[in-house]
Structures are given as C-alpha cells and as structure tokens.
Amino acid sequence: MFDEVSVEHESEFVDSWSAALELLSEYPWAYLHPLKVHPEFRQRVLDAVVAVYAKQGNAPHHRLEMWREVCGVSSGR
C-alpha cells in the first residue's frame, strides 16, 4: 500500500501479561485473523481468546478454530 497514508500508534509500555491483556482489551483483537503466535505464548494467547469470547457471550466457532490452528492446539475433533 504504497500510496496509503501510514498509520502509527504508540501505546504505553507494560511489564506483565495481565497489563498487556488489559491494554489489548481496548481493541477487538481476538476477532482479527491470526497469522502467527510466538511459541512461548501460544497457550496463554489461546486462553485469552477463549476468555474474550466467554466475556462477550459468543464464541464464533470459525474464529476460535483459526486461533487454535495458529496456536498449534487441536480442537479434539
């Protein structure tokens, strides 16, 4: 997107997982299409996605499956 205006945003620095999730909660991040999750954080990220869906009262099955796949966790099917 060479002709597009770039979007830059800086957030505050955080030093804990819970603080990072709190900062992320300002955005619908769990509803985005995941591309890659660092191996050391896969289970934590998946747990956070499940928690977001539970809090929202809906768990879009196809999105949860995308997150499971990217996090390397089988759905048990």
Tell me about this structure.
- This protein has helices at residues 17-24, 42-56, 61-71.
- By secondary structure, it is an all-alpha fold.
- Helix 2 (42-56) runs antiparallel to helix 3 (61-71).
- The chain has 3 helices and no strands.
- The protein is 44% helix and 0% strand.
- It is globular.
- The chain starts with 16 loop residues before the first helix and ends in a 6-residue tail after the last helix.
- The chain has a domain at 22-71.
- The model has no long low-confidence stretch (mean pLDDT 87).
Describe the structure in brief:
With 77 residues, the chain is mainly α. It has a domain at 22-71. It contains 3 helices and no strands.
- End-to-end C-alpha gap: 39 Å
Helical/strand content category: mainly alpha
Largest sheet: none
Helical percentage:
40-55%
Order of helices and strands: HHH
Low-confidence stretches: none
Strand content: under 5%
Basic shape: globular
What is the count of β-strands?
0
DSSP summary: helix tally: 3
Radius of gyration: 14 Å
- Mean of residue pLDDT? 87
